[in-house]
Structures
1.
Amino acid sequence: MHYVWDDRGRRYVDAHAGFGVAFLGHSNPKIVGALVDQALKIVTVPLSFRIPLEEELVRALEGVAPKHTEVFLFQNSGTEAVELALKLAWTFTGRRKLIAFRGAFHGRTLGSLSVTWEPKYRNGFPVLSDVVFLEYNASASVLEEHVDESTAAVIVEPVQGEGGLTPATTEFLQALEKLTKKAGALLIVDEIQCGFGRTGYTWAYEEHGIRPDIVVAGKAIGGGFPVSLVFTREEIAKALLGGRHGSTFAANPLAQAAVKASAEVFVEDSVPARVRQASEKLWRDLEARVSKLGPVRRLKGKGLMFGVELRFPPSRVLGCLQEQGVLALRAGATAVRFLPPYTIDDESISRVVDALEECICREHSC
Ligand code: PLP
């Protein structure tokens, strides 16, 4: 379901989807059913007991987990998963330095905040000093100057979401893979927003033919339930055994049931193929109707993570879209961002594009 209704019964196409969380649709019946069933059985299990759900989950994730990873670790939110990825990199390599990118957003706890670019999120907090920020999509020669034998990890979003819907180039990601491997550093790919089908690939990095050491997933992966996952190789996960990381709620049975049901929906419904199909009409319509409007700098994004960069702040356009029955959000200083559920149909795509064209031209003459 890609609609929501307000208290007056007015219907909206929800292309905000709770910052992209409701990618599998609101109240997806399979996910709601799995959560209710599990809540009626048990909601927490002591670590010394195994339940059948764990094995069922492993089987369900086979169709979804990044192919070259061997283990997955549960957390409860995106930022916690990034913290865990950083801890894995520090312990596995025994090094400290991190490389991140201008425009990056990785979360709001102190480790994640330290690799997040925007000063409005960072200012006033004791962020880590061992972080080097480079230009997103920098050339291999610039990257080469910084990825060295003191580097623990490079962390990168294959499509920057919060920072303005900018996709990474293949050359950039391939250079990062090559240089991290050469330096003995880890490549962490943050797929919290762009992963799990949203760009038309199960994981957005797949399009670029790389094999990151750690893949971080969140938002959509629990179908609305607050949960995140870190996928990695066994040798890396082992570096952090013995209670050096933990969380009361991580991998609780409700979270496991939600991820299992989400993975099943993902496979049964061929979500990446559905996204590719929806994206064809969407991008054709955006090109034809929106890309050449005077106030538009350019179209941004990939698949069902899309938007427009305007020549001015987007608040009035966002307000107008809401009046027109379309919910969207901001990205960076000047972009309007849309993160609709994969179930969005042709009629709703037309509604989004119509409303966007009308709102841009109404608020800033075309
Ligand atoms: N990483 C990326 C790419 C994100 O888009 C977000 C949230 O928007 C996060 C990390 C943080 O996730 P959370 O808000 O669940 O902590």
Note: Residues 19, 77-79, 82, 105-107, 157, 161-162, 190, 192-193, 218 surround pyridoxal-5'-phosphate (CB under 6 Å).
2.
Amino acid sequence: MNFEIARKKMVQEQIVGRDIQDRRVIDAMLSIPRHIFVQEAFAAQAYNDKALPIGEKQTISQPYIVALMSEQLALTGREKVLEIGTGSGYQTALLARLADRVFSAERIRPLALRARKCLDSLKLFNVQLRINDTDGSPIGWEEEAPFDAIIVTAGAPAIPTILTDQLARGGRLVIPVGSDSTQQLLTIIKDENGDLFQAPTVECRFVPLIGKQGWQV
Ligand code: SAH
């Protein structure tokens, strides 16, 4: 299987073909090898139009959703970004290409350790990972706040105020909000006065965000 050809086809059909227009997002998706972020048994399916299991009952999101969330963050390359839910590290790798510095938190240690290896193999050294593996763990990364952009790749019952508090003025938060089975992808913008505005994009289906201001285990 030629992964590069599969990746180009994925970007053409699933990303450009579905109206993702941000050139930097498109280029990042062309350059990051998604197949190294999935378990070996799923490598041949890495460029398919779907989410895949990554172990520990978690999933790597469908490529289109990853692209849409990345585009919604409207990154220029200068931002300090927070990601909640490192998972496989695939979205993290794209953020590393799209922003200046990336802070990513994951609650499941083996996933974080595997993600670290993948990110290092791609020489993406502008990423700091943190393991939040205690139950009821706080969401976010207060010591590094404020962030120009925050992305949550797990579904929340409501918009966590912990995160809107850690967002810089002029910043954006992209997060799936809804029930534990389906959510609405929301883009929340904090304006220069600190007021919040929100816009829904699409229906989606994420694994649950666990902990304080998420779901209880
Ligand atoms: N962006 C990832 C998606 C992984 S699934 C990818 O493309 O691979 C969501 C991840 O969020 C899971 O790995 C889960 O363990 C993690 N998660 C859930 N609640 C969390 C919390 N409160 N803090 C950090 N990570 C959390």
Note: The pocket of S-adenosyl-L-homocysteine is lined by residues 54, 58-61, 84-85, 87-88, 90-91, 105-108, 111, 132, 137, 139, 153-154, 207, 209-211, 214 (CB under 6 Å).
3.
Amino acid sequence: MSQPESSLMSRLVSLSKRRGFIFQASEIYGGLNGFWDFGPLGCQLKNNLRDQWWHDMVECPPLGPDGKPLSIVGLDSSIIQHPRTWEASGHAAGFADLMVDCRESKHRYRADHILCLEVFYEKAGVKKPLGVLSALEGDEFDTTIIKKAKKLMQKAGGGEILPIEASLAVPFTTLSKEQQGLVIGLDAENVGTLTEPRAFNLMFHTYVGVFQDEDSKVYLRPETAQGIFLQYKNIMDSSRVKPPFGVAQVGKSFRNEVTPRNFIFRAREFEQMEMEFFCPPEDGMMWYEFWVAERLRWWESVGCRKENLFGHVIPENEVAHYSKGTTDIEYRWPFTAPNFGELEGVAYRTDYDLKQHAAFSKTNLDYIDQEAKRRYVPHVVEPASGLTRGVLLLLAEGYQYDESRASPEWLKIKPSLAPIKLGIFPLVNKDGMPEVAEKLYLDLRQTYTCQFDAKQSIGKRYARMDEAGTPFCITVDGETLKDQAVTIRDRDTASQERVALDKVRAYVAAKLASA
Ligand code: GAP
């Protein structure tokens, strides 16, 4: 099947806008970099993914290794917490990215996202270094590099550029100072326009109350996790849970990302789904392994193909000092393919956070195990995923292109997560068809998200529903009044079945349950 020229990402961005999944925030004012709005289909899809996570994490969590149900409860904590929270968690001092400014273009980049490559050219059989070229992670590295290399070569008086191996590129941060001085900026013309990397704190701040000074300064949370640690004791005291147990939370987080990129993948305002699992210290490693396997399984259960998921065990020397193990659950994003990029992090955080908050707040956060007659600070295993990043996965994974269909672009989203479950159409707007279709619509929408559509040809209506990822379309036609039956079309196969009107509910329920 021939594919359109444009990259999958640009097609996803334009489909998202055209069909109302995701819009640029403040678009009419020129947009605001790193901020996105979820439109009618997008917020429904996001809510469905969130609800599935909540169901599978809080309402019906998996069975533990001993076959017993796990105990996980929910929380919805404030976005703004006491500023000491971020001192204790380490975010105030350490939540920083190294960033690099380009003196020429005045752009700012995350140092670890600038990839550099030394390029050579050959003239009259003599091989000479041409310079160090850079591109940004996720860019079409080869195109950017080759364009720049050609420009440089012209300045050098012509010659042949030796084949460039994009896979040999290394982050800017790993270059020596001398090499960094030779780099050509990403959108600069001259050599050596990039500054040395400097730390840049990612937390947004604001002020509480009428005075705006250091004493009233507070932060928008950069992760939902800390709210859970602050309420751990209240939750144990009020909910009769004891280790091992989990606390789950879904909500907005804010990071002043240096280079928000790749659509909603790295935004400045985004949503997370995080769960902190508190357990006896000696069981930490077991729960860490349990949650890594469980989370990989879960992403498959929402429709991600196994071959597009990867559990990346972070090497010991790269994990945070307090972590005894971190595995990133990675997905083969359109902009990382054939490689993978982070979707979720599963971290064994030990007792670090609770001990820090106990010390900073001077509150005892020990758990007293009455039965075993001992007290301890629980260890924590944290599966932390991005809800908005998960929506991007559903769109990328679901995107299909087939020129033989009425809408070549269509979305194969797992039916239970699809924003609209049923399209309901009268074939034509006469002969009693709209009345029957509307009656069916008013009945089915009590249970399923439905869309009634009576405009344009039936083919165009199917196409609209395919683009929205709607799994089933029900058409009331000229025969319906005679045979009391409708046609139900399946999105994935485009096949149609005749179903009696009084069996439609059971048919849809069975299909949605099995898909
Ligand atoms: N409490 C741990 C924590 O926040 P993280 O790896 O920084 O860990 C967890 O974030 C997840 O949140 C990431 O795997 C990603 O899915 C999502 N996330 C982080 N920063 C993001 C951003 N700027 N835009 C969208 N999603 C983001």
Note: The mean pLDDT is 92.
4.
Amino acid sequence: MPPDAPPRTSRALSGIQPTGRFHWGNYFGAIRQYIDLQPGAHQAADEAYYFIADLHALTTVRDPARLRSLVHAAAVDLLALGLDPERAVLFVQSDVPEVAELTWLLMTVTPMGLLERCHAYKDKKNRGLPADAGLFTYPVLMAADILAYDATIVPVGEDQVQHIEVCRDLAGTFNHLYGDVFTLPNPRLVEGGAKVPGTDGQKMSKSYENTIEVFEDPAAQKKKIMRITTDSRPMEQPKDPEGDHLFELFALMAPEGDRLRMADLYRRGGFGYGEVKKALVEAAAAYFADARGRRAELEADPGRVEAILAAGAARARARAGDVLARARRACGLSRGEAATGKGRRP
Ligand code: ADP
Ligand code: TRP
């Protein structure tokens, strides 16, 4: 089968870095889509693999206790938000050491120039900050993450599309050199390319310190919502809800009817932003109420979460082991099988 031919099985895969607790941007921009791609859900793939990218996080989180706790919290959050271990494989990246070996194989076909153009590294360099080889080679590790599971669909935000291109490039080069080893993946962008705004109106991101965390303590969350920046136009002036970041956040969480009423209120004018903020506090509480309940149950049972991760890692390793064996045979690392064509995909 040529690498770009329609695959027999659609397999979604994505990773999320445990560099902080998940915020609304992560949920509406990424996690919600993971859940929609689980088998049985409305946009389902045949299989879904999701992992907590702790090897990637090592380039930023240098405190071991914090990293451990963030990885556990990420697992609990993902499960609470609806990731179902019966339908998707949930695991921790570093529990699959095959990926690290695959990274090396890919590194040998990676042109330096390709990595020099990648934005994570380029941005840091342009800001005059020191970059380590981990950050420089980050797209190669990400390519191995994807290729190790024969993933066909990679749900990501806009910022990660470049890395999927790199992955396709490396897979294509490897296949060209050694035969049909890797499946070429396609990115799946969040519908509408949603960019969730932060409390200051810029894109919500940990790096801008403008995030509202999904499972933040309700009192702290309320404080942050009440401090969302707004403009100083007079109350009576009609306003356009489109492009207003406070309205955008409300629209993400409010039921349809409330959203239409709020849009109307904006257009008519005569309201205060304080009212909108209060409505947002309530909408967020209602929207995530079930998830908070599930989170509390999971928190009370850390053994269950660890068992889910262990089962996920076992399934992920089995697949990654097959792919790695295929790649090793294809490039000549397994003696005695070179001429048999066993390096090729079945
Ligand atoms: P951060 O910018 O806070 O460090 P990450 O880069 O770890 O967040 O993002 C993890 C995932 O969440 C990515 O798929 C990214 O595209 C998505 N994401 C993060 N922030 C937003 C946002 N404000 N709007 C939409 N998607 C987002
Ligand atoms: N680099 C991604 C991010 O920062 C996380 C990630 C690592 C990933 N490996 C991946 C995403 C493989 C998709 C597929 O958001």
Note: The pocket of tryptophan (ligand 2) is lined by residues 13-17, 53, 56, 142, 145-146, 154, 156, 160 (CB under 6 Å).
